Fold Pkinase-domain-containing protein.
Amino acid sequence: MVDSRYDSDSTSRASGSGRLGGGRSKLAAIGRARLDSEGKEISKDGHGHVDDDDQDQLDLVEEADRTPSIKRDGGRIRRRGGGGKGRNRIGDSPVPHRSSHPTIQGCRSVYCYERLNHIEEGSYGVVFRARDKETGEIVALKKLKMDKEKNGFPITSLREIRTLMEARHPNVVQVKEIVVGDTLTQIFIVMEFVEHDLKTLLSNMRTPFLQSEIKTLMRQLLSAIDLLHSNWIIHRDLKTSNLLMNNRGMMKLADFGLARMFGDPVGDMTQLVVTLWYRAPELLLGVKEYGTAIDMWSVGCIFAELILKEPLLTGKNESDQILRIFKLLGQPDEASWPGYSSLPSVSSLSIPSSIALPSSDLTTKSRLRSRFRYSTENTLDLLSGLLCYDPSRRLTAADALRHDYFKESPLPAHPDTFGSFPSVAAGEKGGFEKVAYSPPAPQPRLGDQKLAYQLEFDLS
């Protein structure tokens, strides 16, 4: 049976007002000469098939009447902005029908959520716990700080949204959607709700995590970092307060306000990144180019904090921080860190004689032994690999995941075996309050923000 869409009356077919058939075989079956835009009969071969050029014209005749991007030119119909032979094609691919694309819609209203309680306020936003009125799902609602923004949408928020949308991983906090309020400055990121942050847990727990639990947390952290670095993303603000943890033993990496994409070569990036206590020595000494190794130094500081139950290096300022690093690991030299003597800030350092011993005279592992008395050799080996002075020799996330530390007894614990704690963020009584001090994340200067916008466009 002939499809009713093509079985219109003979008058409409003769006038060309009916819809055209679905291919050359259909046209041959109809066996009726069609006219092109010049009134000439369309040519057919000996088998009654329409040649390619005329078939293109048949398709465009009916489309020209309803599509403004198609115009007549010298009697022949042409598609604006394109040329070449082929039916409805862009490049080498067929143009999909409009119905194959999802409808573009605006953001939902923040009033789709019921605000439950305030969680915390950071440098770039205020976080609330909220409930989706339709589904009942509990989420974290982050209101971006837009009131004092003079350069359009904050670059930190753009980076956070873009990175979280691209970095899908079980140990990276999930962004669900963006919602808006009544004014242009009311923009919210909707994320999955996680009960705790690691710093608050460490500060309030009566006993530290078990060695098997530390291995689980480190493996989750390194797995998330490996995904970021594999996708050319540097976090640039790894610290325990940016690591969230639920009551099912799952760690979630959060706060991507300073994260950014990078290329090869890396190029210039702002030096004002990473919270002071977790900042790599090359940043403290003024390098202009850096890479993923700065994240791995921060991972080493987090690893030490999980073991000690307190931050490893708590400098009061940049000078004090670099001196604390030297006191712990020894002063670097050309043997332990090639190019160290030519770093921008080295000449201005005033180093006490008590820590003037070059680190090559005493291994990093043996220096760490005095601070981590009860740790195994594999633990110290992993820690010294992460806290290596030379960025080029510092362990990568992939290398760290393969370390023997994770293979020795006790093996990493299953996340389900972790204990649970009451959560203040969830409005539960008896939860741990955030009382421990931690330096704030560095604030980008205006010049750095303008440079960041330009670099973002260059990488797009």
User: Anything to note?
Assistant: The chain has 13 helices and 15 strands. The first helix runs from residue 10 to 15.
